[in-house]
UniProtKB/TrEMBL annotation:
This is Uncharacterized protein. Pfam families: Pyr_redox_3 (PF13738). InterPro entries: FAD/NAD-bd_sf, FMO-like. Gene3D superfamilies: FAD/NAD(P)-binding domain. It comes from the Eukaryota. SUPFAM superfamilies: FAD/NAD(P)-binding domain (SSF51905). The keyword Oxidoreductase applies.
Length: 641
């Protein structure tokens, strides 16, 4: 019989978002029993050790990919002006785990098979690890599996006869020795950023590559230079600059200048001119036209996906030009022994077929009871009422007319990679909370969002999620559901839930209209709308979003340093009891599990809480001279770290 362990919070995923959310929750609730689960053998998410291969790097340059409370300095092998290597990111996250006392709470190689929502609003998780299984009973759950958890792996006619490695690019590191330096070429399928990275890794090792771009796919992504203009401005700074954000139509951002730019004829002319200039800077057409093979990498349609050229040299371009990398725009018809057959009639001898074919949009977890996907707002469930969606589209286009003429994913030959492709995005309030469960406060999804600034967004979402689950934050919609669409249910709670659903429809539909390609199809996207999104979360937390003054606020680029001390700032607004400090706080920061600064004391009946597997730490009681051994009640010290 499986043993069930009772805990306060389970965090599923030990990547950027999961670690940030876990730390924030523990800072707020230092006596709660928190467990972090990850199916991988180490922490890091996409930057876990088993996924690191030679040459892998971030799209970010040093200084723009870090938590505000833990600077990424030279000890992690980073160099100013360079992209951050995968090894450096992995070392950084491992150090972060140790710095803030998260290591003892992490359980790796633990795959969550099912998560069952109980009538008492808690969650029961069935977990497998090394052939054995166990159960966790958690009062709260944070799902932090991110965008790249479960690969889309196509099947091909004849693949059982292929007799050659066939795998997803997720497993590239584990298979390097099987295909590099082979006498036969390696075949790569796909043209997303992962495929570029895969082709670059193979070509850099001297391997011949056949690169297949699906004729029925989305086509090549737009690869932009990390710097642009004669002044070498970092591209990644643009989304975190207030002035630039005003030029991006955004449904959750507002202000006098944005209203002028997006709601007047003259303003829209200015906006169009701005983005045309930006497009010329980041999309150098002459580079594609310089060689017939490079022309095959020209993005298709009006709404291609977007990424950054993060390779140290132009060797990949040279490899395309000299034939080391051969590009085929075709579909795979079938496989035979060590050969890939194309719709063009070509047959490609292959040492391996590497599929860079994307990721499933939903978490790799079976949620129960059956049908709860709809209640959770997942793409795999049923969508919200069509009338609400239509009204949301009308509202958005009325407020942001430019989106009527926005880019379209006009690819008439497109066919999904699988037959199970969802037809609607996540429907999550603030891109985190299922609207129908907003009053329950039992579950949050973090990291289900596209952003250029993972460090900033993960920390803001983490604090928001922790405050929300701790009942210290309430979502206040800025727009009300039209009266004609209301259900007629009575009560403030029902009315608020409907308004939250309406705002969720506005935000998620905006992303589909603003980003009609793959980057807006299923997930939220805050690319150039980063600052308005952070402002929105901080407003919910009662904090100031605009953290600079004067010209710096308008023209300066926000970085992690601008949000340093965010948790402490929020804590100071939560009715602190002053004068209590710990030795850890005196040293400059308070590791998880310690009180820092003020706290609120509450008395609860011990029978109202499930028993933890291990006794809660009494270190906080001891440091204050308080006896924690109380048989009938527990004095909970909720620290605001």
């Amino acid at each position: 019989m499986e043993k069930t362990v009772n805990i306060d919070l389970v965090v599923i995923g030990a990547g950027w978002f999961g670690l940030a959310a876990a730390k924030a929750y523990i800072d707020i609730n230092p006596l709660h029993n928190v467990v972090i689960l990850d199916s991988a053998p180490s922490v890091g998410g996409v930057w876990a050790t088993y996924r690191l291969y030679k040459g892998l790097a971030t799209n970010n340059i040093v200084g723009s990919f870090e938590y505000s409370d833990f600077p990424m300095d030279e000890r992690f092998g980073v160099r100013p002006g360079h992209h951050i290597s995968g090894d450096s990111i992995n070392q950084y996250l491992e150090a972060y785990v140790d710095e803030f006392g998260l290591r003892s709470r992490i359980q790796c190689d633990s795959k969550v098979e099912t998560a069952t929502h109980s009538p008492d609003e808690s969650w029961v998780l069935h977990i497998t690890q090394s052939g054995s299984s166990r159960c966790l009973h958690a009062r709260k759950m944070i799902v932090a599996t991110g965008l790249n958890a479960e690969p889309i792996m196509p099947t091909f006619a004849g693949q059982e006869e292929f007799q050659t490695p066939l795998f997803h690019c997720r497993d590239l590191a584990e298979n390097e020795s099987m295909y590099l330096k082979s006498e036969r070429p390696v075949t790569v399928l796909g043209c997303n950023k992962s495929s570029w990275d895969t082709v670059n890794a193979c070509a850099a090792s001297g391997q011949q590559v056949d690169w297949i771009i699906r004729a029925s796919g989305h086509g090549p992504i737009l690869m932009a230079s990390p710097y642009f203009t004669p002044w070498k401005v970092k591209l990644e700074r643009m989304p975190s600059t207030r002035l630039v954000s005003w030029f991006s139509p955004c449904i959750w951002g507002d202000g006098r200048l944005p209203r002028f730019l997006h709601r007047t004829w003259l303003g829209r002319k200015v906006v169009s001119a701005f983005w045309k200039g930006m497009d010329k800077c980041i999309h150098p057409v002459e580079q594609y036209n310089a060689h017939p093979e490079m022309q095959k990498l020209m993005p298709w349609g009006d709404a291609p996906s977007f990424s950054v050229w993060n390779y140290p040299t132009d060797d990949l371009v040279d490899a395309v030009r000299n034939g080391t990398v051969r590009i085929h725009i075709a579909n795979i018809t079938h496989l035979s022994s060590q050969t890939v057959h194309l719709s063009t009639g070509e047959s490609l001898p292959s040492a391996a077929l590497i599929c860079s074919t994307g990721w499933k949009p939903c978490p790799p977890i079976k949620f129960l009871p059956e049908g709860i996907e709809t209640e959770l707002g997942l793409p795999s469930g049923n969508d919200i009422d069509e009338q609400i969606i239509d009204a949301a589209n009308k509202h958005i286009l009325g407020r942001l007319p430019r989106l009527k003429k926005e880019r379209h994913d006009n690819l008439p030959n497109y066919k999904p990679m699988t037959d199970q492709e969802p037809d609607h995005p996540y429907r999550l309030a603030r891109f985190m909370v299922p609207p129908s469960m907003v009053s329950e406060r039992s579950v949050v999804f973090v990291g289900a969002i596209h952003t250029f600034h993972t460090g900033l967004v993960s920390q803001a979402q983490g604090l928001w999620a922790a405050a929300y689950l701790s009942d210290r934050l309430t979502i206040t919609p800025s727009s009300e559901l039209p009266a004609s669409l209301r259900s007629g249910k009575q009560g403030d709670a029902a009315s608020r839930e409907e308004d939250v659903l309406w705002e969720t429809a506005l935000h998620s539909q905006f992303c589909r209209l603003r980003h009609p390609g793959p980057l807006g199809k299923w997930h939220g996207n805050v690319g150039f709308d980063l600052l308005p999104y952070l402002d929105l979360l901080l407003k919910d937390l009662g904090l100031q979003g605009r953290r600079r003054s004067g010209v710096k606020e308008m023209l300066g680029s926000y970085s992690a340093g601008d949000y340093r001390g965010l948790t402490r700032e929020w804590r100071e607004r939560q009715l602190p009891i002053t004068g209590l400090r710990t030795a850890a706080e005196d040293r400059g920061h308070a590791p998880s599990g310690w009180l820092a600064g003020g706290f609120i004391a509450e008395v609860h009946d011990v029978n109202n809480f499930p028993a933890a597997e291990e006794p809660r730490s009494t270190a906080c009681f001891d440091s204050l001279g308080i006896d924690g051994d109380t048989p009938d009640s527990v004095l909970l010290l909720i620290g605001w770290a």
